[in-house]
Amino acid sequence: MQGPSARLWRHLGWRGLALAGVGVCWTVYGTGLIVTTRAGVIAATAPVTGLMCMEAWGAVWIACGLLGVAAGARRPGRDVWGFAAVTLPPAVWLLAYTIAAITGDYGPGWASVPLFAAVLLLVVIVAALTGGHRRICTCERGGPSGQ
To answer: How far apart are CA 66 and CA 70, in angstroms?
Structure first.
């Protein structure tokens, strides 16, 4: 008999854990965008806050985070939409920070560009290494090795 955490791990695996973990982080970050005012973030995201207010962008981060959490609970191969959801907000922020740094709207923005690029790169690597093809998760195969 296995404990709840072992069963959860057998279901999530690395792929589900990555989606759920990043999803929780995006939800917290989006909440922070809504409830706090940070001059640097406002200046750096000026290229996209003309499209929507910061609170709306916070809601986008939260929604994409919740989609990531939900996708993390799905079977591998049926969760690709979750990876798309968790890559959207940092991709938009990467673009906004890059534009703000290039145009001079927020000169220090160049220092945050590698951070958002690294997040995107790592999420793509996890998605590629854990496979996107549909397969039965180890919790449904039975046995400790998942076979």
So the answer is: 6
